[in-house]
Design brief:
Layout: H1 14-35, H2 40-67, H3 73-97, H4 100-130
Helix pairs in contact: 1-2, 1-4, 2-3, 2-4, 3-4
Bound molecules: fe (ii) ion (2 copies).
Length: 136
């Protein structure tokens, strides 16, 4: 397992916490499939599911920030866009090389450390702000 869901920092909105937990579940499945040397099609299926989940995760936060005019929306969105750019590059490399180690290295060295930091900073501030308007 890459990360136990109990280790994800909690923010003030449960709907955001649930999205983060679901994402880590998908990430763990992908990571384990690579670790266990599962076949390329299975890894590809899990990788695509993960990328789709990240897109949904980011757009769900962005919709709430837009709806309630969150003051740091451009900054928060900028971090999301940076990661979406990295994932697009990774997908292109994957199409060429189909090398699971590339995905594994990205998850371990880039995505997971980024996500933990992002939740503790941007998502925490955003959830605190939104919790004044949204009850969940
Ligand atoms: Fe988030
Ligand atoms: Fe975020």
């Amino acid at each position: 397992m890459l990360l136990d869901v109990s280790q994800i920092p909690k923010v003030a909105l449960d709907r955001m916490n649930r999205v983060h937990e679901e994402e880590i579940n998908l990430l763990n499945q992908l990571f384990e499939a690579i670790d266990q040397g599962k076949d390329i099609n299975e890894i590809e299926r899990l990788f695509k599911a993960f990328v789709e989940d990240v897109k949904k995760h980011f757009s769900s936060e962005q919709e709430m920030m837009e709806q309630f005019n969150f003051f740091a929306y451009p900054m928060h969105r900028g971090e999301h866009d940076m990661v979406l750019g990295q994932l697009t590059n990774l997908e292109k490399k994957w199409e060429k090389e189909k090398n699971p180690e590339l995905i594994k290295a990205y998850i371990e060295n880039e995505f997971l450390p980024w996500l933990m930091n992002h939740i503790q900073t941007m998502d925490t501030v955003t959830a605190h702000f939104l919790s004044h308007f949204i009850r969940d």
